[in-house]
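Technical annex, item 7. During the second reporting period the consortium partners agreed on a shared format for inverse folding records so that results from different sites could be compared directly. Each record opens with the tokenized structure and is followed by the designed sequence. A conforming record, contributed by the partner at site C, is shown below for reference.
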């Protein structure tokens, strides 16, 4: 039985990363406004910086459109301090997402139940004897 390796390319048929980007943006907006960081509809500089960082991480994800949710990912691409900030934001907004953004919240929960994929194995280096 051969193992199936998923290509890590962006395919226009998949919309998971775009939806995950919308979910992260919605979470950050909710968190920022509820904690009095931003004015009107703008994010505060710290939340805007975190959103920009998360966007870049999503765009450069090695899994491409087969990307699992960050909680299930084998590769943690966030720096330690920004990962902690994002964890705080997600922990606060998680229970509130179902009320404010029910579709995004439910789809994110379903994505989290998907099995994570493995990275392709690195080719073995030939040993010289």
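Designed sequence (site C submission):
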């Amino acid at each position: 039985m051969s193992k199936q390796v998923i290509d890590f390319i962006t395919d226009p048929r998949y919309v998971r990363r775009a939806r995950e980007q919308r979910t992260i943006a919605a979470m950050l907006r909710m968190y920022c406004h509820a904690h009095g960081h931003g004015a009107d509809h703008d994010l505060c500089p710290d939340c805007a910086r975190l959103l920009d960082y998360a966007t870049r991480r999503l765009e450069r994800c090695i899994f491409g459109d087969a990307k699992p949710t960050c909680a299930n990912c084998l590769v943690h691409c966030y720096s330690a301090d920004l990962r902690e900030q994002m964890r705080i934001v997600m922990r606060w907004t998680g229970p509130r997402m179902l009320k404010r953004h029910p579709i995004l919240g439910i789809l994110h929960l379903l994505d989290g139940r998907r099995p994570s994929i493995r990275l392709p194995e690195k080719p073995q280096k030939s040993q010289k004897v």
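The two ends are 32 Å apart (CA to CA). The chain has four helices and no strands. All partners now use this format for quarterly exchanges.
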